[in-house]
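Running this now, will post back.
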Amino acid sequence: MNLRALLNALTGRKSSKDVAKERLRLVLVHDRASVSPEFLEKIKEEIIRVISKYMEIDESNTVVNMHRSDDSAILEANLAIKAIRRNIH
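Update: finished.
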């Protein structure tokens, strides 16, 4: 890991390489599931917003994918959970 990657990891910033990979992933997901990257990003934001009421989420390590199987669409959400909120109001 070079110094820039270490600083980005510590500050939560993504490198341009990581941003490019994320964009490419969104384009591929769009092609597979016939939804726009903006739509998928909106779903990701909404999932994080709802789950964040109960858990502290590491958004930089959260991945949401949508793809098609033979007869349906599959939504996968992998959320990196930092902590569980014990006091829910």
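DSSP finds three helices and two strands in the chain. More later if anyone needs it.
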